[in-house]
Each structure stands twice: as structure tokens, then as C-alpha cells.
Amino acid sequence: MKELAIEWRHYDKEGATCDRCAATGTTVSEVVAGLGEELAGKGITVTLTETKLPEELMAHSNMILFNGVPLEEVLENAAADENHCSSCSCLTGTETSCRTVEYEGKSYEEIPAELIRKAAYKAIGLNEE
Predict the structure, then answer these.
(1) Rounded Cα distance, 88 and 82, in Å
(2) Which of 9, 13, 103, 111 is the 20 to 30 A CA-CA neighbour of 88?
């Protein structure tokens, strides 16, 4: 059986994360649940791992990996960037930037379901249905 391992990394401070990471986390959980059902019939198991990061690894926060490869490397025309995050700044007590994903000219602070699905299908070499 083939496996698609999805990992979501995010900053965590005493059980709290920033607003954009929380939104991405909800979305990735929902997408993975749907993918698990869709892909089971194709002999593919989908797993989700949540990795909580300390403040010193903030640059890796709000990152989604597909079989160990970041979303922005799986998708063509995608790149990682960052911008100011007031929610993380509140959590850390200092001015903080958070990761964003640029895809086809648009910047995303919260990674949308369609990008997660597109990257998942590409990571396993299937056309999205």
C-alpha cells in the first residue's frame, strides 16, 4: 500500500498558536480526512502528523510537508515568504513575522484547502479529481 504522509508544522506556546496557523490546522485536518476516504480506494493511506515548534523555529511555522517535501516545492509557481503576524507577535511579546505561501501571484497567510489538495495529489503522482 502506498502512503502519503502529511506533516503540519506550527509554532506552539503553551498549547496556543497564532490565528493563521490555527486556520491552516483546521483546514489541513479537514482536507486529510477527505483525502483519506478518497484515496483509500486507490490503495493509498494518508496520515497527518502535527509538529509543534518552539519560538526559535518560527521560520518553519505554518509549513505543510508532503512525504517530507514542503508544499511550495511540490507545487510549481509556489514559493515561501513571510509577513508581519500580529497574532504571533502577541504570543511571543515581540514583533514577529510568519510564513506565507505565494502561489501563482497570490499570497496566502492561511493555506487554503485547494492548495493542500493540489499538492497532495501531485506528491503522489495523481491528477486531482
Answers:
(1) 12
(2) 103
